Amino acid sequence: MRPPRGRIPPARRRRTVTEEEASLWRRFVAAAGITPLRPEIPPPDEPPQRPETVADDAAALAIPRAAERSMVRSAPQPPPDLAIGVAPGGLDRKRWDDLRRGRTRPERTLDLHGRRADDAHDAVRRFVLGAQAEGLRCVAIVTGKGTGETGGVLRRELPHWLNAPPLREIILALAHPHRANTGAVHLLLRRKKT
Predict the structure, then answer these.
(1) Is the same domain home to 156 and 70?
(2) d(CA 143, CA 127)
(3) Do 70 and 102 sit in the same domain of this protein?
(4) Tell me, what's the pLDDT at 173?
(5) Which structural domain, as residue segments, surrounds residue 59?
(6) Of 5, 9, 26, residue with least CA distance to 17
(7) What total number of domains does the chain contain?
(8) pLDDT of 30-76, one tens digit each?
(9) CA neighbor of 183 nearest in space, from 109, 123, 132
(10) DSSP E strands: which ranges in the chain?
(11) CA 105 → CA 12, 19, 92, 108, 188, distances in Å?
């Protein structure tokens, strides 16, 4: 409820920390090894004693947390998985629209009709790596629509193959050249590093 105009609301009383709460907080800070940014509460006289266990010995041998965090940050993160027909991050809208609508023509095509899954996987890998080595920007892979609701094995497995290393690092986007043609996928490749 708002106070009537012209009246100043009464000041709210600030809650103060009790000595018991302050003592509990000091013990927690000391046990966790935390250094406060603003040491408003003085540190305790002595940290609480913990019983020694085997876990403490293992913790003493473990990597310090700060070093562990820096190792995690320095590890390169793999790029996110690509989905066919979903715009990836970092690709400009015009280039994506051209690929999705079939205006970017593939420079080479791989037809997987009649191949077994293991043979097709090897062929896809060689094809994409070879295309990128030649400096091609757009290629097509034809799997066929397959039979049944889920389509064929090759059509179902192709996104997994393309998102696996080392192919994922060189593919920018995946799209069907036409909404009705789900048996072919156009791949936009990264430029070859010089």
Answers:
(1) no
(2) 14
(3) no
(4) 92
(5) 19-74
(6) 26
(7) 2
(8) 888 777 666 665 555 555 555 555 555 555 555 555 555 555 555 66
(9) 109
(10) 108-111, 138-142, 171-175, 184-189
(11) 70, 74, 17, 9, 10
